[in-house]
């Protein structure tokens, strides 16, 4: 692949960077910018969204015909990295999880009628969305084959019973994508799941609790849901009966990579904060930046960030070529999750008590970063994926083609 950015991508990169610097970064230092869950207040978010739309920086992953920018995955990598220079950035451009992955999935697999009813409001920013898959034991998590939530067909409707938990954004979402078992046979592991769409106002389900965690929380948190007779019309089924696992793979692959794109921007921001501090701070007659130990530490993180960028760009390029890029996405996910945590941990160490305090965003990022090794598949699961590819391909695992 050619790493030279197109003129369009470079122009967008500069515009996003300027928008973040002018409109978003200043908000981080004001305690009034945050809601009770340590994210940007939603009315403030909505004000910034109006400005982002006016600036032509809205919904980069969606087609221009639907009000987006129609960017390729490679172009999105450039955009998302700059967007997450601020902890508030992606949500202001409508490229934050879980809406980002849900929009991408619906654009790829939904019918035209479903796109108009379920997708367009998310693109427009009038509703939030959620993806309900993960379940308590013995249900499905990283292994969708274990999903227990049932969808039973009754005439032209489906009746849903079961439980989900750690469902991102559920507390504020209006549009949901739900994964449920439609084939009771455990032997049919690849054809037993189906995806459905439902609205938050539908009866027959409830939010059991918003689950407390290390935080900071995204809008809508992570929630436990109970389904006790939710009825979904068959026309709100996504794809065909039994296509749920395929739909899950279509959604999660690119979503994992866009996480990496955003995390790289956040890791670079941690380095900015660290570099600015060690360049000014002196101790025992020498600037911290002039100490070899500090230089080695910063150099190692810069090295890891660049590796992460190359892994992410390569996976994005392969997706643009029509490849599923499963091992490339898994490699990026493992490395970038580790790198984000390493970058913020290093920045806190170099900032000392200042980094541990709320005087910077570093402690916020530190708590956020721990989830990176878990979301969209734990690092261990992705390493198992790579091991399977290597066991199958041998030395061809590293082929250039």
Short structural summary:
The protein is of the alpha+beta class and 401 residues long.
Give a verbal description of the structure.
- The protein is built from twelve helices and ten strands.
- It has 401 residues and is of the alpha+beta class.
- The protein folds into three domains: 89 residues, Orthogonal Bundle (Butyryl-Coa Dehydrogenase, subunit A, domain 1); 115 residues, Butyryl-CoA Dehydrogenase, subunit A, domain 2 (Beta Barrel); 149 residues, Butyryl-CoA Dehydrogenase, subunit A, domain 3 (Up-down Bundle), CATH 1.20.140.10.
- A four-stranded mixed beta sheet has the order 1-4-5-8. A four-stranded antiparallel beta sheet has the order 2-3-7-6, with no helix packed on it.
- The longest helix is centred in the middle third of the chain and has 37 residues.
- The radius of gyration is 22 Å and the shape is globular.
- It starts with 6 loop residues before the first helix and ends in an 8-residue tail after the last helix.
Sequence-ordered SSE layout with sheet pairings:
Layout: H1 7-28, H2 42-54, H3 73-83, H4 89-92, H5 99-109, H6 112-124, E1 128-132, E2 150-154, E3 157-168, E4 173-181, E5 193-199, E6 205-210, E7 222-233, E8 237-238, H7 244-280, E9 282-283, E10 286-287, H8 292-320, H9 326-351, H10 353-356, H11 362-370, H12 379-393
């Amino acid at each position: 692949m050619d790493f030279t950015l197109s003129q369009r991508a470079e122009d967008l990169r500069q515009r996003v960077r300027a928008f973040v610097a002018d409109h978003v970064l200043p908000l981080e230092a004001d305690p009034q910018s945050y809601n009770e869950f340590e994210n940007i207040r939603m009315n403030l978010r909505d004000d910034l969204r109006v400005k982002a739309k006016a600036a032509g920086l809205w919904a980069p992953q969606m087609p221009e015909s639907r009000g987006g920018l129609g960017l390729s995955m490679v172009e999105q990598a450039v955009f998302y990295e700059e967007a997450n220079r601020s902890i508030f950035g992606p949500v202001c451009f409508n490229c934050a999880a879980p809406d980002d992955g849900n929009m991408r999935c619906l654009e790829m697999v939904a019918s035209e009628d479903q796109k108009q009813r379920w997708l367009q409001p998310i693109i427009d920013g009038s509703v939030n969305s959620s993806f309900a898959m993960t379940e308590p034991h013995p249900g499905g998590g990283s292994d969708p084959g274990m999903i227990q939530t049932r969808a039973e067909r009754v005439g032209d409707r489906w009746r849903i019973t079961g439980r989900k938990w750690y469902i991102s954004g559920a507390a504020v979402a209006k549009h949901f994508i739900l994964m449920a078992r439609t084939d009771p046979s455990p032997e049919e592991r690849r054809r037993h799941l189906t995806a459905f769409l439902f609205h938050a106002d539908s009866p027959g389900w409830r939010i059991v609790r918003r689950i407390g965690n290390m935080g900071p929380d995204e809008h809508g948190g992570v929630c436990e849901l109970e389904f006790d007779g939710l009825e979904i019309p068959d026309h709100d089924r996504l794809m065909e009966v039994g296509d749920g696992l395929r739909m899950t793979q279509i959604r999660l692959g690119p979503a994992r990579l866009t996480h990496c794109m955003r995390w790289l921007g956040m890791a670079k921001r941690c380095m900015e904060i660290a570099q600015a501090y060690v360049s000014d701070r002196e101790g025992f007659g020498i600037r911290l930046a002039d100490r070899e130990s500090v230089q080695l530490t910063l150099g190692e993180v810069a090295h890891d960030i660049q590796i992460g960028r190359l892994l992410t760009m390569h996976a994005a390029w392969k997706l643009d070529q029509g490849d599923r890029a499963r091992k490339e996405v898994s490699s990026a996910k493992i490395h970038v999750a580790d790198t984000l945590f390493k970058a913020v941990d290093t920045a806190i160490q170099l900032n000392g008590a200042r980094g541990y305090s709320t005087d910077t965003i570093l402690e916020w990022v530190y708590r956020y970063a721990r989830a990176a090794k878990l979301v969209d598949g734990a690092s261990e699961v992705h390493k198992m994926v790579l091991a399977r590819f290597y066991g199958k391909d041998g030395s061809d695992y590293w082929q250039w083609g």
